């Protein structure tokens, strides 16, 4: 057998551990995990234990040359000097990492790189502990060649956890195929200030919807049991309340009371933890003056004691260093390390927060050996459960069968289709007829591949991403002439050609205008040490969203509104398509443009999916997971604010332009025959809410039925309404379907004045409909007793 085939197949390395198992119990796969953990822990030096908690940036840990892919000198030094236990973003490629299609790794090369890294760990270290490789994977593995799905705000717009679980399973398979065992995601931040730069990474403004999406992602990533083939563990981000910083400033302080924390911000994380999430990441921000990376109440009392979390907690990049930096709660780096590990933070993403600082803290008595051992055991336990000691390598021959397959691309298109929200369709302008003679396609996002992908996306090969222009061209026949004029950029105002766009529009039968925002990074952008982009007011890139790009206004930037207004003056039918990462100001468009389609960042198949909707090949059913404000002066404007109801402003309505749950269809649905059945018992109750939904239209379509609850009288102030159940259901034209939801005490509980969960007796109003502001049926649930 050739030497290379020995290495690549892993045959040699499957044999060696079996020979050593008699001497080294931790290498014996037949022993229980806990015995293996304790055996290995007992063999480790203090320095090796500290190193096991360091997760370094991984993209400099391999070398790619004419002879192939291997480990770098930097990896060898990090292993020898620091005894590192984990790597992050080894396969990441983007302008921050300076990895391109040329110097980055193809999927097969990625598998070779991770195999080489694990081979080095087994061959060249004293104990042969494999590395746990963590990868960014919120809407696809952030690596060259991987499939790119809609960003999280688009995923949430599907209101389809079953599809999101399928998508997450696909992401896991692609990540696992090249050696990743941990995917960063889902992001479970509750987004209630769209000025904040990372809104696109969230599932929106509602805790219940986020919780359902988070559970789906975890189940898709991990499966039923951690350690299965083609599965990875998820890392829940960012624990907690990261998305509501004061002034929308990324990473800054948050003032949230415990009741709001428990009712809204903690709830999605609890759902994902109870689904079995393997890892949780702390947030950069502080809450009520305590940094999340040094908060024992969050990491010990809530996460582990209350919820039973048994995975490991990892810092966000450099957040431990922030304790004796921006937060200034520690006077030295060693004190910061001590604060974090005592609070229950196990792993340092950076290698500089713990490392030498943690070793100093241990040596000086700031950190007890037992505390260190607890954190190390959590990491080792996860490595054993993932099978890293027994199956450290991946099969390079299987990569092409798992990454970017036809099946994976089809799921990306379906996710994009289901994420699209039809906001307005005056006069039934949509769907367009494919027999239309001439279409003008205009706008900065009409034919820009990177603008429709969102942040945390790797470089893409030419032709892989289907733009809106490409989608329209593919949808219509040769008898339709397609004219394209960019018109303007997202931000740059020096190279607009609005006149050309207007001239083309005047010759057309219909105009499709594609505007919005962009999170596309370029190689001229500068970055902070955390990876967040630096804002440059003089930059001419399109980037106006994505990590680090907080905004003071939600107006469309550059000459976009001027372009839209000039096109509207032509009198031609106009369809506005928005591709963006946060809700933007659509007031003028809503008042003047007959049809508006929102696609968020729809991923690599987004252009085809948008065309499917525009021409009626797909009947849209997406719903807004976040409200679209009329003004930043309204913020926050989420639908489920606490009582009392808002009154209007002097200048405008207090209601959002488009509310949470809003979305139209090419079909019309009617609701009827509501039945509420309540059965109370000693310890709980069971309430069944059932009703009919009928498709009165001419097309088959999906309807998203939503159930909201109003606690009419409660001992503490509660929301004016709260989503409790939803279901996306396909209903044939002229058909009627019965929808049923079940509620128990868990769904109606509140954090009572005596600081415990309680479901209180009394009346609860049930609101059923197609959106938070589109209620079709009302019922009442009455409880005769309290439930604890």
TrEMBL record:
<dbReference type="InterPro" id="IPR001764">
    <property type="entry name" value="Glyco_hydro_3_N"/>
</dbReference>
<dbReference type="InterPro" id="IPR051915">
    <property type="entry name" value="Cellulose_Degrad_GH3"/>
</dbReference>
<dbReference type="InterPro" id="IPR036962">
    <property type="entry name" value="Glyco_hydro_3_N_sf"/>
</dbReference>
<comment type="similarity">
    <text>Belongs to the glycosyl hydrolase 3 family.</text>
</comment>
<keyword id="KW-0378">Hydrolase</keyword>
<dbReference type="Pfam" id="PF01915">
    <property type="entry name" value="Glyco_hydro_3_C"/>
</dbReference>
<dbReference type="InterPro" id="IPR013783">
    <property type="entry name" value="Ig-like_fold"/>
</dbReference>
<protein>
    <submittedName>
        <fullName>Glycoside hydrolase family 3 N-terminal domain-containing protein</fullName>
    </submittedName>
</protein>
<feature type="domain" description="Fibronectin type III-like">
    <location>
        <begin position="703"/>
        <end position="772"/>
    </location>
</feature>
<keyword id="KW-0732">Signal</keyword>
<dbReference type="InterPro" id="IPR019800">
    <property type="entry name" value="Glyco_hydro_3_AS"/>
</dbReference>
<dbReference type="InterPro" id="IPR017853">
    <property type="entry name" value="GH"/>
</dbReference>
<dbReference type="GO" id="GO:0016787">
    <property type="term" value="F:hydrolase activity"/>
</dbReference>
<dbReference type="InterPro" id="IPR036881">
    <property type="entry name" value="Glyco_hydro_3_C_sf"/>
</dbReference>
<feature type="signal peptide">
    <location>
        <begin position="1"/>
        <end position="21"/>
    </location>
</feature>
<dbReference type="Pfam" id="PF00933">
    <property type="entry name" value="Glyco_hydro_3"/>
</dbReference>
<keyword id="KW-0326">Glycosidase</keyword>
<dbReference type="InterPro" id="IPR002772">
    <property type="entry name" value="Glyco_hydro_3_C"/>
</dbReference>
<dbReference type="Pfam" id="PF14310">
    <property type="entry name" value="Fn3-like"/>
</dbReference>
<dbReference type="InterPro" id="IPR026891">
    <property type="entry name" value="Fn3-like"/>
</dbReference>
């Amino acid at each position: 057998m050739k030497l290379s085939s020995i290495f690549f197949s892993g045959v040699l390395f499957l044999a060696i551990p079996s020979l050593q198992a008699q001497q080294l119990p931790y290498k014996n796969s037949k022993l229980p995990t806990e015995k293996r953990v304790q055996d290995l822990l007992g063999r480790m030096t203090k320095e090796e234990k500290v190193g096991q908690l360091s997760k370094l940036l991984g993209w400099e840990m391999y070398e790619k040359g004419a002879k192939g892919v291997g480990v770098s000198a930097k990896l060898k030094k990090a292993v020898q000097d620091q005894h590192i236990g984990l790597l992050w973003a080894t396969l990441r490629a983007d302008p921050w990492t300076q990895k391109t299609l040329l110097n980055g790794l193809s999927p097969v090369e990625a598998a070779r790189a991770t195999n080489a890294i694990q081979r080095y760990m087994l061959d060249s270290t004293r104990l042969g502990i494999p590395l746990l490789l963590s990868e960014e994977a919120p809407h696809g593995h952030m690596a060259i060649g991987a499939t790119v799905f809609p960003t999280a705000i688009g995923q949430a717009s599907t209101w389809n956890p079953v599809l999101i679980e399928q998508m997450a399973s696909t992401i896991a398979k692609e990540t696992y195929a090249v050696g990743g065992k941990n995917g960063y995601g889902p992001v479970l931040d509750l987004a209630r200030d769209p000025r904040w730069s990372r809104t696109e990474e969230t599932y929106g403004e509602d805790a219940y919807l986020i919780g359902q999406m988070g559970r789906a992602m975890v189940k898709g990533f991990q499966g039923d049991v951690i350690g299965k083939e083609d599965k990875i563990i998820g890392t829940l981000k960012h624990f907690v309340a990261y998305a509501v910083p004061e002034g929308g400033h990324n990473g800054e302080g948050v003032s949230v009371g415990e009741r709001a924390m428990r009712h809204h911000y903690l709830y999605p994380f609890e759902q994902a933890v109870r689904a079995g999430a393997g890892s949780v990441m702390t947030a950069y921000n502080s809450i009520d003056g305590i940094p999340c990376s040094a908060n024992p109440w969050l990491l010990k009392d809530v996460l582990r004691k209350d919820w039973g979390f048994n995975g490991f907690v990892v810092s966000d990049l450099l957040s431990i260093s922030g304790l004796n930096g921006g937060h200034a709660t520690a006077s030295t780096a060693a004190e910061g390390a001590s604060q974090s590990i005592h609070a229950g933070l196990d792993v340092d993403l950076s290698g500089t927060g713990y490392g030498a600082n943690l070793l100093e803290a241990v040596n000086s008595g700031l950190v007890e050996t037992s505390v260190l051992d607890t954190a190390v055991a959590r990491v080792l336990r996860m490595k054993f459960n993932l099978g890293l000691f027994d199956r450290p390598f991946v099969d390079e021959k299987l990569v092409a069968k798992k990454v970017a397959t036809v099946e994976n691309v089809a799921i990306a298109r379906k996710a994009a289709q289901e994420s699209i929200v039809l906001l307005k369709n005056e006069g039934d302008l949509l769907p367009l007829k494919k027999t239309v003679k001439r279409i003008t396609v205009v706008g900065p996002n009409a034919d820009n591949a990177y603008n429709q992908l969102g942040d945390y996306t790797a470089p893409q090969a030419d032709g892989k991403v289907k733009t809106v222009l490409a989608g329209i061209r593919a949808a219509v026949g040769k008898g339709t002439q397609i004219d394209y004029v960019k018109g303007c950029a997202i931000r740059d105002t020096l190279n607009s050609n609005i006149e050309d766009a207007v001239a083309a529009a005047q010759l057309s039968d219909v105009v499709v205008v594609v505007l919005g925002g962009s999170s596309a990074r370029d190689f001229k952008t500068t970055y902070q040490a955390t990876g967040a982009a630096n804002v440059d007011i003089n930059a001419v890139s399109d980037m106006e969203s994505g990590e680090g790009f907080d905004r003071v206004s939600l107006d469309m930037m550059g000459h976009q509104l001027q372009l839209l207004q000039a096109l509207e003056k032509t009198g031609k039918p106009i369809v506005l398509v928005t591709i963006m990462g946060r809700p933007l100001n659509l007031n003028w468009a809503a008042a003047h443009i007959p049809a508006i389609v929102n696609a968020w960042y729809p991923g690599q198949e987004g252009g085809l999916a948008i065309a499917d909707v525009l021409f009626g090949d797909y009947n849209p059913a997406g719903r807004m997971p976040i409200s679209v404000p009329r003004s930043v002066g309204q913020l926050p404007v989420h639908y489920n604010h606490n009582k009392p109801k808002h009154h209007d402003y002097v200048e405008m309505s207090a209601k959002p332009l488009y509310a949470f749950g809003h979305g139209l269809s090419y079909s019309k649905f009617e609701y009827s025959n509501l039945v509420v059945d309540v059965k109370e018992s000693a310890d709980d109750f069971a309430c069944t809410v059932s009703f009919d939904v009928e498709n009165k239209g001419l097309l088959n379509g999906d309807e998203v039925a939503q159930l909201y609850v109003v606690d009419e009288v409660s001992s503490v102030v509660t929301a004016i309404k709260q989503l409790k159940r939803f279901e996306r259901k396909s209903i044939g034209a002229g058909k009627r379907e019965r929808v049923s939801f079940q509620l128990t005490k868990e769904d109606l509980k509140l954090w009572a004045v005596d600081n415990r969960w309680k479901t209180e007796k009394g009346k609860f109003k049930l609101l059923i409909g197609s959106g938070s502001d589109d209620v079709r049926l009302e019922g009442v649930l009455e409880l005769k007793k309290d439930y604890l």
